[in-house]
Amino acid sequence: KKQNGVQQKQSLPITEDILNQMMDATEDNLIGIRDRALLAFGFVTGGRRRSEICDATIERLMRVGDGYVYLAGKSKTNQAGDEKSFPLKDDAMPIIDEWLNALKDLGITSGPLFRGIDQKGKVSEDPLFPTSVNYLVKKLIRKIGLDDTKYSAHSLRSGFATETGLKKIPEQEAMQLTDHHDAKTFRRYRRLGSVLNNPAASIFTRKKAAADDLGSQEDTRS
C-alpha cells in the first residue's frame, strides 16, 4: 500500500451528455416517463443518493415561481432531519411535470414520488427500493452501449459533482446542492471535471500543415 497507494473503487460519473443519452433510451410509456423524471430529479437536485430518491414524496415537491423546490428531510449527511432545499428548474421542469401529471391522471397526488410499475402499467402505492434505482441506472447504461459494471446509482451523484467542475461552477455553490460537509470528499468527485479546465491541458495543438511540410522535405532529400 505504501509503495503503490490505494485506489478507491468508485463508480464512473454520469455527466450531462451520458444522462441525455440515458433519457433518450427510456421507453415511450409510463415506465419511461417515471424513469426520465427519476434521472432528472436524482441529478439536478445535486446528485441525490438512491435512498433519498426512494424517500422523496410528492408533498415535499413545492412549485415556486418557474421551478420546483424539493424540501428534503433526514439523510446520510443530515441525520438531524433539518429541512434542506434543492432546486429543480429549466429543462428538468417539463420532465418532472410529465410524471406528476401522469400520476395525477391516476388519482395520485400524495405519497411516494417514485413508485414501482408493473408490466400492465399498474402503479404501486409503495416507493421504489434503492436496489431498483441501481437496476434502472444499469439497465439504461447498457442500452446506450456502456459497461454497466462501471456505473451505479451513485454515478448520478458523482456525475453532478463532475459536471460542476466541467462547467466551472463555484465549489461552495455546488456543495450547497450536494450537501457535502467535507470539501475533501466533494473534490474527489469534482476533480475529473475540474482537471479538464486546467489551462495547461490545452498545451497540445496538432499542426497538420507542419507535418505535411516535414513530409515534403523528406521527399526532397530522398
Summarize this structure briefly.
The chain is mainly alpha-helical and 222 residues long. It has nine helices and five strands; from the N terminus they run H-H-H-E-E-E-H-E-E-H-H-H-H-H. A three-stranded antiparallel beta sheet has the order 1-2-3, with helices on one face.
Q: Could you give the order of the helices and strands?
A: HHHEEEHEEHHHHH
Runs with pLDDT <50, length 5+? none
Q: DSSP strand (E) fraction?
A: 5-15%
Q: Whole-number average pLDDT? A: 85
Count of beta strands: 5
Structural class: mainly alpha
Cα-based radius of gyration, to the nearest Å:
22 Å
Strand order of the largest sheet: 1-2-3
What does this structure look like?
This protein is mainly alpha-helical and 222 residues long. It is 48% helix and 10% strand. The protein is built from nine helices and five strands, in the order αααβββαββααααα. The protein has helices at residues 16-24, 30-44, 50-55, 92-105, 130-143, 154-166, 171-178, 183-195, 208-221; strands at 61-64, 67-72, 84-88, 115-117, 123-127. The strands form two sheets. The protein has a three-stranded antiparallel sheet, covered by helices on one side. It has a two-stranded antiparallel ribbon with strand order 4-5. Helix 2 crosses helix 6. The longest helix has 15 residues, at 30-44. It is globular and about 65 Å long. The termini are far apart. The model has no long low-confidence stretch (mean pLDDT 85).
